[in-house]
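RECORD TYPE: protein structure
NAME: Polymerase/histidinol phosphatase N-terminal domain-containing protein
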Amino acid sequence: MAEHHTEATAGEHTVRRVIQRRIAPGEQGAYIEIPFEMPERAEELTVAYSVESFGEAKAVIDLGVRDAARVRGWSGGARTGFRIGLERATPGYMPGKLAPGAWAVLHNAYRVPEEGCEVTVTVTVSLSAPRWLKGDLHTHSVHSDGKYTLEDNAAIMERLGCDFIAMTDHNTCSQNEAYPRGASVVMIPGMEFTTNYGHSNFLGVADPLDDFRVSDQADVNERLRTARERGARIVLNHPHCEYCPWEWDFDVDYDWVEVWNGPWAERNERALQWWQRQLASGRRLVAVGGSDVHRPDPHVRHAMPCTWVYAETRTAQGILDAAGCGHVCLSFAPDGPFLELRCGPYRTGDAVPAGEREQAGCVALHARGLQAGDLVRWIGEQGLVKEETYAADDGDAAALTLDAAGLKFCRVEVRRYFAEAGRLLVAALTNPIYFD
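PREDICTED:
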């Protein structure tokens, strides 16, 4: 018996279809398919269903789904819905690529009343689209010297409204196998390669090293090589910390530098100045941040600082790819100032081609959460280019612009007076926009 009603809607980033299907008594014991089309750029599939019995007896209709190649999940009568994403899924369902084409919700008509029944299936597909996501790229748990469980970390990040957290316990990768699969935040696999003379994060792979122990620079180079071959993104952590700085050679293989570690302090100021010198020398080096949270502390907290990335997908790979493009800004907290640089169609981390520089015009700062009295500092390869005190208190800073003629890059820092510290501290900063 064919479905008797279909309703489809489409938003900018969502496709939704509601399908009603009558099931006759004669179909008891049969497997029934409710076909639907998976669109291009699908990021997450959500299916919900309900059953209306037409007689006294209660209908029992099982649930599952298939793609064009295979059954992707089955929950029988245990659930009334499920989700399948690129990296995680409801138990009983397989995450992974949501290939465009012919899919179907599966039903087993296990028990059908003599009068029949009707299922109502709602299929919602979320489409990938570039957007800013926020989270923390440096955290610890009970899998090393932290006090938080992985479930604690995930729950805290969810409460903060964050999208991702990197699990970077010291010299171990057990956390990457034990993370809570049902968490709504993206949990990026990682490890903090911790030596006596410096730390670095390996992000994006569950098992980046077989042995972390090193005795000299050659050993360090070999460990970095292994992590790289396994697909890790490499971050030099708190390189100018007074307690555990990077004392190995800086001329090693790495991707990004952690210029902001925990609450803003002198170690971060030193890292910021070092990074500025690298940029001025012509390097296009991405700056990231991380809370380095270990345990409950009045000052060291999750997503403080908060790392924002402009990602194509809400997945570990999408987030790390975005960071690799330099589409990163940092804020002192998830609800702190958000900054984005734009120059024509180009944004933070991009390079404006030489032939388009004049056409693209000035660099504009788009921001949220600025406060009256915030000091906005525009910085190029020679240092401070322009400094202005923000006068409004609504956080709308789209009117702040810079004529970047002659500059090789520009970036922005916002410094704010924090009464708790009794001085000006960095409240937010961007990666540069570059000019070819």
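COMMENT: DSSP finds six helices and 28 strands in the chain.
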